[in-house]
Amino acid sequence: MRQGDFVTRKSYGGDVMFKIERIEQLKAVLRGVDYRLLADAPLVDLTISNPAEAMDHPRSSSPEFRESLRRLAVAQMQLQEKNQLSLPHKQKAEISYFEVPGKVLHLDGDPTYLRKSMQIYGELRIPAEGFYIPESQMAEALHRLLPQIKPNIVVITGHDGILKHRKSGGPGNLNSYKNSQNFVNAVQTARQYERNLDSMIIVAGACQSHFEALLRAGANFASSPARILIHALDPLCIAAKLSYTSVKDTISMLDIVDLTVTGLDGLGGVETRGSYRMGIPGIMHAHSEEHA
Fold this sequence. Notes:
alpha/beta, single chain, six-stranded mixed sheet
């Protein structure tokens, strides 16, 4: 058994597919393939799965996940139609306009999830910049990236999990989590840069993260109210909805829940204004280039 192998845990009935991040003596540190879960397990508890099985794992091509992506694409079209309807009715045919969807800064503790997320942002025409940053370095990275990128929406995610052998209290204690403290530090850093919850929207957390602590730190939306596993792309679903929701509209988690795989047990948050703006008249690219 080596770093990079795909495995499941016998003691959990093989319910979640993992990739071995590293091996420490007789124990492996594991990162979920489909869920944003960080775990460890004795090597004797692991069963190897080949990469083809990992890609075909029911969770990664599950009907729930495919349906979530389909709903996300439909929601995107509906938002664009709604934004167009805000134009004066009599002049719709004559008015040209341009769109300024909210810009996303996506920090991810998993390079595979980051690549998939950036692909979907591209397909949905959402301006996004993504960076693979280990969870422990996210707060420091935000000091540098926020002034440089000036995003409307910040996604802070990666892997998390509740420690199996908790030495310092129950689920109310941040020390009971693998990365929740790192996510809280990152959210606090972001809020020092921009305090207004509508000017910069923060989506934070991963599997089983300390939901209440993330909201207290300043996140608009976070995981995980019921301390459950969240799907790898659930944070992206929230960011995508916010990017194309007009600044004139306020949305709550109830407006987003159907787009996610794990629902209100997995994600929650506070009412927040969208970050999409319409510009009039439309920009003539060729004309602009001639006079550049």
